Fold:
Amino acid sequence: MRLLQLTHNDVISIFPDPILQLHTTRSWDFLASESGTGSDHRSPPVSSDIIIGIIDTGIWPELPSFDDTSIGKIPSRWRGVCMEGFDFKKSNCNRKLIGARYYDIQDDWMESKSVRNNTHRPGPKGSPRDTVGHGTHTASTAAGTAVANASYFGLATGTARGGSPSSRLAIYNACTLSGCSGGTILKAMDDAIRDGVDIISISIGMSSIFQSDFLSDPIAIGALHADKMGVMVVCSGGNDGPDPATVVNTAPWIFTVAASSIDRAFVSNVVLGDGRVFKGSAINFSNFTRLKTYPIAIGGQVAAPSTPFSEASNCYPGSLDVKKVAGKIIVCTDTDPMVSRRRKKLVAEFARAKGMILIDGFEKDSPFDSGTFPFTDVRDNDGAQILKYINSTKNPTATILPTVDVKGIRPAPVVAFFSSRGPGGITETILKPDITAPGVSILAAIMPENETGTIPPGNKPSKFGLRTGTSMACPHVSGAAAFLKSLHPGWTPSMIKSALMTTGKIKIGFMSFSYVFFYLSLMFMHGY
Structure:
């Protein structure tokens, strides 16, 4: 390959443009209770002039989490813009959502890729509006306005609020569902610095398998410039755990965040025909009750012709016989990590199963959202008991109960199974991630979804959703940092980082060594 030689004074280096990936009501209550401040404390009066820049997939501005009713006028130092798009007007910005940008460069990259694959379909492009949901969720977690009686179709009911509800939001739509161009991320960081943001929150990262050095990592480069300008950059650490050395965004000048649990679980129990109950984990809005059970079968027992037992047991696509499956609850195993829970659920649903029980030997923290389809996830020991019941009974039956949320779960916090671990591949002598924050089943604002099978009958699309990942942990720290910045405007990014880490609670134990969970007694937060 012939490299183009450039002598322009403004060009420092040239490297391939990488594609980065997105890292998806009680968490602030939990932090307050763990810090010993209790949930009755109120936040002291703070400035509303702190600006958090969210580089993500955009925003859904009409949601109540971005209402500006009690917020003062926009700070005079703000130099940003509210860009109009084909479905986004300047009037969508307000005193809370003070800026919004989008970037055609990402569309150009996606367009060139789709043209090569002959999949391009022309249509409107360019808008700060969120069509993925990721950016809306992270923005409201960091600085959402308090919204009473928030819930996800009755689950996680409470007052939803961001870590710094008085802060302003500046949105930089730099990503699609397929990923984020590194060049676009760097441009967005440049714009955010020039616009006048105080904190940049990025729930995005490189692949942990193909990590670049800091000289060719766009987030590391942009964060260094931000740090020199006094702008703090908070990034997610990635979702490739529990293997070691999988953490990303490890530059020393980045505040790197891992994900941990809170003391809430979403439970969907299995009731067998003999009356025994087994605890399952899931989010489903089925109409099943204890009063009626349904035939239950192992996936391998209802295999399609010429399908190996192991494939049908794992609910591979095309592995189940529709005639044998219809009307039954199907039990699938999870011994093949290549077939996701979502795919297994779709396979069972397509085969007209009445519901699905997944036996999952891994300690997955994230409850799967199956919408109205009855689904639950049970652990190995319980799964073995269910299989024994099926094989020892002539006409085995069961039911899957709809989800309820349970509070007071212990131990908590626990570093999430999926959360990437250190040490950093480039900075092995510097402990990374720096801190953990709630990242499991976090309720926050979400773009309204109206997909068939996702909304319980009689309900409108929810304005809030439950998401899991280090993407959700990152804006918790961004919100906490904004709160501190409002109390101490002169503090540098290093001072804020130090304050959060040194007032945190060190968690030493299996799979949580060197992680810090911040409780920040200064915050007196409650309700998110």
